[in-house]
User: Fold this.
Amino acid sequence: MINFQYARANDVADAVRQAAGNANAKFIAGGTNLIDLMKMDVERPLKVIDITRLPLTQVQYTAEGGLRIGALVRNTDLAYHPLVEERYPVLASAVMAGASQQLRNMASTGGNLLQRTRCHYFYDVATGCNKREPGSGCSAIEGHNRMHAILGTSEACIATHPSDMCVALAMLEAKIHVSGASGNRVIPFAEFHRLPGATPQRDTNLNASEIITAVELPSNGFATNYTYLKIRDRLSFAFALVSVAVGLDLDGDTIREGRFALGGVAHKPWRDPEAEAALRGQFANPATFTRVADIVLRDARGYAHNAFKIDLARRCIVRALTQAARRTPQSQSSKKIV
Ligand SMILES: Cc1cc2nc3c(=O)[nH]c(=O)nc-3n(C[C@H](O)[C@H](O)[C@H](O)COP(=O)(O)OP(=O)(O)OC[C@H]3O[C@@H](n4cnc5c(N)ncnc54)[C@H](O)[C@@H]3O)c2cc1C
Ligand code: SF4
Assistant:
């Protein structure tokens, strides 16, 4: 048991003030990841700042016709929100594909963005792990790596980002609103999470003491032709081996715009601009979808136990794009799952 100070923040400025200058402070929202990490001795904050009373629980229209989702909106409330179900069903599907009902009832939007990898060596303090302890090595590269990444890996880390919600947010091109000691800023989703490189201990480009206040969605939610496909070892309560969020804008059988992001394959939700460009103006058919899957996976690298993910990802991309084109989304809308 480590001793830590517990403090409650009264407003966003107070939260930032309490965190500023204290590298060992952590915000706590739903606590579904942070408490586990503390119990396993992976995270050792000296101060835990409770942000659950901050007024960040609203889902509101933006002036641009999009949605602003407060950082403390619970995953369940997000998935069941009428505007999300109607205008961003791919996001509702992705959130409902994650964790369990009880966890979704606790987990917050901000916390989901910052949940840490599920690499088992990261949670096992008896093993070397560059993410947990920089310079201690990566036990997964030569170890058991079935769940690990096939894209964007480095010699220092091959972990994946575990979130489902983030895969949909990447495809939707959300923006992250944050507040810190130097003021407020907005981070495009593609620049929020990082690849491991030589510094896998840093998951995101959030600065110390910055708090996430909201996630902003643009007006286009691809509510007609979309899908969130998640392949996992069990039908529920399991992290993705591979997942794909797709949004298509079709003119008959021709793709005006196509976007997709992959989960379970990299240190961050994976998008490939070249592959998406290859969808534009093409027929929505298996030949097109197979071609773009090959583009995405051109540099994929498998390790001892996860090479199967390369073919799995290829099939998932083709299937998810096909389902979106046919308007047969894989995961049910949150309305249909109780
Ligand atoms: C058994 C299990 C299965 C799961 N399965 C899935 C799954 O299949 N798919 C999936 O996507 N997720 C899954 N999860 C993860 C779950 O979704 C996350 O634990 C949850 O979203 C984290 O949210 P939280 O509010 O509880 O975060 P917390 O645990 O409170 O915080 C997590 C991190 O975020 C930081 N933080 C929280 N809010 C803010 C903020 N506003 N600003 C700055 N920093 C902040 C904290 O300091 C901490 O570092 C699973 C979790 C468990 C325990
Ligand atoms: S893959 Fe990353 S998180 Fe897992 S052991 Fe290696 S360095 Fe640690």
